[in-house]
Amino acid sequence: MWELFSYGVISLWLEMAGIETIGKNTIAILKWQAGLPQLISPENSDEILTLEVDEYLEGLKTKGLLTADAQGIWIQSELISLHSHEGTIPIPGASLTKIATSLAALETWGPQHQFETLISTTGPITNGILRGDLVINGGSDPYFVWEEAIALGNTIEKLGINQVTGNLVIVGNFWMNERYNHVVAGQFLQEGINSATWSRNVRSIYNRMPPGTPMPKVAIAGSVISQKSVSQKIPIIRHKSLPLVYILKTMNAESKNNLAERLAKNLGGPKVVQRKAAWSAGVPEGEIQLINGSGLGVENQISPRAATAMLVAIQQRLQTSEWVIADLFPVSGYDTGTLADQSRNIPQGAAVKTGTLNDVIALAGVFPTREQGLVWFTIVNRSPYWEETRAEQDKFLQELVNRWGVTMPPIGIIPKINGNRLGLGDSQRNDILLGN
After folding, report:
1. pTM of the model
2. Class assignment of domain 116-241?
């Protein structure tokens, strides 16, 4: 039952039906357009669940928690739709938008993709001194932070460079600590590679790194400048980012808006994300309407069905890798991030994405049950009462789990990535090129 919702099972069904060749998103398109049996069909609606949903919404209304009529709910088990309340109507979903950004990123780059930053010099190195500039050629790494700078500084020192007589030159798309001004990002890097200049904040971050991590002291005498290009440079280090799956994990677990925005821009903008996500999930593009990649703004609108379909598409996209959907989203009982910040009481083992705007409380994800297998859901409530509405959402999910039976998460949704320890500052991702 756990793996029923898989590309392989449906592919076998199609082959038995005489359809030998299918496109990458054919399954999803057939699914949502009722091209396969036991998929989206009113006959599959769970009557008891319908009553429970009605009671849930009526309870919110009675308690005065709802300020708008638009409330969206979609629940399905494996291949079977269990309930839809305004499920195909686009509605502001807040950070559920990051599901679309995640799916488009996976489709474009793959889970193992690493963004590369090239470090070069423009002069000779003698007695620990680089007599020239240190050049940083950015490769659009969206998650270069203090730990990465510290590790890079240690690798630079490993090459025998302690001082730079020239400038720190930024070329290409180099960003740091979610600051996208090249000079500001370069100033952060200049501080990060020289522990003699660290602020209290940087020292605090360093203290969370593995014990014994060296404290780099690479002093740059010149200024931080931004240029379009640099000629006559010698590559010395290729820095590789965390794999994309780790970046998406932190984006979703901590709901980092700037990180989501940068990924969306790298992908070509929100309309490209919208188109790729809809195609990959096999839903009409009209059910995913985006103005950015983060979800900031009620203009970002996604139907509950589309949000669920994108989660399912992500799980399917990961089937040929070592990762599962729980490696991209926070898991109740495993990760902190928004789940801890919001004090959620979501069923143990559920992989979810939260979303919050002024009057939007959204939750989408998947949780395991004994009777229904993996249950995929999206709940979007229009309410300004955050804590109360979140508590009602959690209570509703707990009731579903109690009804269908508690079970241990199957291997298919047990995370391998701990969102609290991503492996930032690993010097092994710095490839030394000088002398190779």
Report:
1. 0.89
2. alpha beta
